[in-house]
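Researcher: I'd like a candidate sequence for this fold, 451 residues long. If you have to choose between options at a position, lean toward the conservative one.
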């Protein structure tokens, strides 16, 4: 009798287990969201997020539609799922993005929150075939007006990126075990995905389309900032700045924080537009190490395939970088390394005559930016970089490589490199470079000389 009773009960328990473990769905419509592209649905969506998180492993879902929203804050152990036909579109009101402590372009400061925020949380997934659209042109126009009409004429090019506050699209800040998968991301006011001070983050299968409605300044694709154990894979990007970029703090503030970026994997991505296919820097102060890039395709609208950049005030050590199986088509410079990048932006100093007219006191983050970094600490150091399996056609120059005499580029290895270019370009200030199986075909007959 006992055996007859026990077996059915066990069977029932096993059958019920998957249903009990299945995550509950929280439809934003049940919390008042309209999705009609007219009503602002921020509060309703946030209520559904809070309910899903409270339930534990809840999933926030949407019916097809356009949901206007300001900043949303995801919580631990939940999923935000945007299925095909669903779009979250950012409202064009800066007050809808609360100002919070974060890091922006290498400096810790207060800045508007992103449209989607994972802020000091864990075990969060954002995925689906839907779209997140920052509707960012209003912020792009604001930036260009400030820069061209106010800042550049006063010698303050370096300050405008910090003074012109613009919302990012997705911020992952001081968080762990985060997944971003499958979404289409469009038109951020500033960076698209910013991963800062975080660990164990997966970015897989994103489609980034930032060059619609204009070309937004600083609309990077994925920025990995003083974070570790990050995977970026199978993404297709069209940006107007760095597509996939590794950062670790700027100048005195970055040296103070001293938090590296490391254990990064970048696999099988395509870049159609941007400043470069993959970028290391320019914010290098905390150091960048243990990076693997494998399977990268970079197409003609992009000026550089592989870009390393820093400045004489950044500091930091960049080492153990392995890049392989890269194809560039029509990219002007397949490999570029500059340690004196964009001086008008990289070196912050007040113009003669002091503060601009109408400014009574220097902002706190200006003081950080204008602090003098001792030369010995300011020089970045690049070493143990390996590039193999690079195939480039339609290039203008094969290499544009330079460093400082007292901070040479040390122990770089190039293997199985095939480049067709108009000219070979230049390589200067190196130490211990190795080149094997190099096939550089130039229209002007020049050859690669390593100095």
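Model: Candidate sequence:
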């Amino acid at each position: 009798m006992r055996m007859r009773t026990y077996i059915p009960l066990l069977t029932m328990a096993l059958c019920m287990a998957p249903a009990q473990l299945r995550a509950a769905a929280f439809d934003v419509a049940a919390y008042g969201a309209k999705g009609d592209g007219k009503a602002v649905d921020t509060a309703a969506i946030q209520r559904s997020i809070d309910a899903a998180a409270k339930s534990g492993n809840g999933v926030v879902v949407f019916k097809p539609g356009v949901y206007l929203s300001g900043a949303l804050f995801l919580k631990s152990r939940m999923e935000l799922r945007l299925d095909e036909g669903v779009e979250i579109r950012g409202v064009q009101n800066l007050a809808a993005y609360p100002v919070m402590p974060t890091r922006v372009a290498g400096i810790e400061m207060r800045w508007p929150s992103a449209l989607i925020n994972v802020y000091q949380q864990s075990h969060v997934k954002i995925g689906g075939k839907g779209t997140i659209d920052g509707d960012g042109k209003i912020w792009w126009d604001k930036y260009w007006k400030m820069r061209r009409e106010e800042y550049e004429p006063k010698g303050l090019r370096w300050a405008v990126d910090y003074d012109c506050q613009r919302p990012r699209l997705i911020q992952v800040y001081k968080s762990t075990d985060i997944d971003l998968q499958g979404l289409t991301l469009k038109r951020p006011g500033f960076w698209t995905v910013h991963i800062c001070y975080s660990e164990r983050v997966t970015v897989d299968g994103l489609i980034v389309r930032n060059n619609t409605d204009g070309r937004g300044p600083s609309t990077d694709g994925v920025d990995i900032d003083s974070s570790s154990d990050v995977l970026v894979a199978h993404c297709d990007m069209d940006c107007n700045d760095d597509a996939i970029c590794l950062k670790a703090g700027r100048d005195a503030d970055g040296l103070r924080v001293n938090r590296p970026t490391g254990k990064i994997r970048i696999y099988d991505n395509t870049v159609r537009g941007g400043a470069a296919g993959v970028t290391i820097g320019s914010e290098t102060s905390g150091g960048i190490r243990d990076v693997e890039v494998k399977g990268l395709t970079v197409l003609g609208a992009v000026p550089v395939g592989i870009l390393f950049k820093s400045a004489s005030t950044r500091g930091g050590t960049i080492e153990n970088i392995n890049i392989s199986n890269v194809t560039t088509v029509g990219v002007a410079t397949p490999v570029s390394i500059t340690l004196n990048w964009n001086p008008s932006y990289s070196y912050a100093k007040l113009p003669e005559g002091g503060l601009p007219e109408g400014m009574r006191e220097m902002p706190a983050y200006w003081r950080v930016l204008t602090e003098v970094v001792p030369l010995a600490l300011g020089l970045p150091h690049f070493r143990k970089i390996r590039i193999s399996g690079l195939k480039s056609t339609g290039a203008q120059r094969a290499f544009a490589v330079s460093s400082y005499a007292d901070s040479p580029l040390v122990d770089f290895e190039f293997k199985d490199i095939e480049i067709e270019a108009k000219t070979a370009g230049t390589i200067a200030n190196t130490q211990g470079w190795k080149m094997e199986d190099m096939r550089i075909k130039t229209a002007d007959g020049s050859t690669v000389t390593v100095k």
